[in-house]
Amino acid sequence: MEAAAVAASAGGGDNDGSPVMMRIYIGGLSVGVTESDIEKTFSSLGRVAGVELVRTNDRGFAYVDFQPSSQKSLAKLFSTYNGCTWKGGRLKLEKAKEHHLARLKREWDEDIKLMSVTLVDPKVEPDAVKLKSGHSNLEETHLRIFFPKLRKKSVIGSSRDGLA
Fold first, then answer.
1. What does the DSSP 8-state code read for residue 42?
2. 40 exposed, middle or buried (CB, 10 Å; 0-12, 13-18, 19+)?
3. Tens-digit pLDDT profile for residues 21-46
4. Which of 2, 123, 137, 156 is the most exposed place for a label (fewest CB within 10 A)?
5. In the chain, how many domains are there?
6. How far apart are CA 66 and CA 47, in angstroms?
7. For the RRM domain, which residue ranges apply (predicted)?
8. Does residue 123 sit in the same domain as residue 135?
9. Cα-flanking dihedrals φ and ψ of residue 71, to 5°?
10. Domain range enclosing 67
11. What is the distance, to the nearest Å, from the Cα of residue 162 to the centroid of all Cα atoms in its chain?
12. Is the pLDDT of residue 66 over 60?
């Protein structure tokens, strides 16, 4: 059941229907497991772009950048290896979050694209461009503070001149 949910959440990649590159967490690795062992095992079901192996005293875990050859191979990967015993450790596979450096690069690219829109088109005012928070105007942003001893809420709004 979980394999089907992960396969569905991976979604399609490009227009050709190939699955997109995803990051997989593999927990419960024994001390004897190496990066090449992980690459050899998972490469039969897709392309392994990278492996980050983290070790503690008696256990380890890894993050694998993996592109499955098809949606069925992704479901097969999770159904086959999740919960199995491999080289002395009981594996736990989960879809991992995006790598923090990749996320930063993506966010910077989005910010650059947003800035280029405002610089290229002089008709677009900076306030008209949607901010990441979803507000189109800074004057709409308010901060609500609760003062427990006073049992009172205070609303602080922002404006161009400073705090309102």
1. H
2. exposed
3. 889 999 999 888 999 999 999 998 99
4. 123
5. 3
6. 6
7. 22-98
8. no
9. -65, -35
10. 2-97
11. 35
12. yes
User: Best-predicted range by mean pLDDT among 44-53, 98-107, 115-124, 134-143?
Assistant: 44-53
The 8 Å CB, 24+ separation contacts for 57-60 are 58/31, 59/28, 59/29, 59/30, 59/31, 59/89, 60/29, 60/30, 60/31, 60/33, 60/89
As a three-state string, the secondary structure of 58-122 is CCEEEEEEEEECCHHHHHHHHHHHCCCEECCEECEEEECCCCHHHHHHHHHHHHHHHHHHHHHCC
If one counts every other C-beta atom within 10 angstroms of the C-beta of residue 64, the result is 24
pLDDT score for 140: 55
Residue in the block written with tokens 């990441």: 132
- What is the C-alpha separation between 90 and 112, in angstroms, rounded? 44
Q: Which pLDDT value is given to residue 125? A: 53
Which CATH number is 73's domain given? Answer: 3.30.70.330
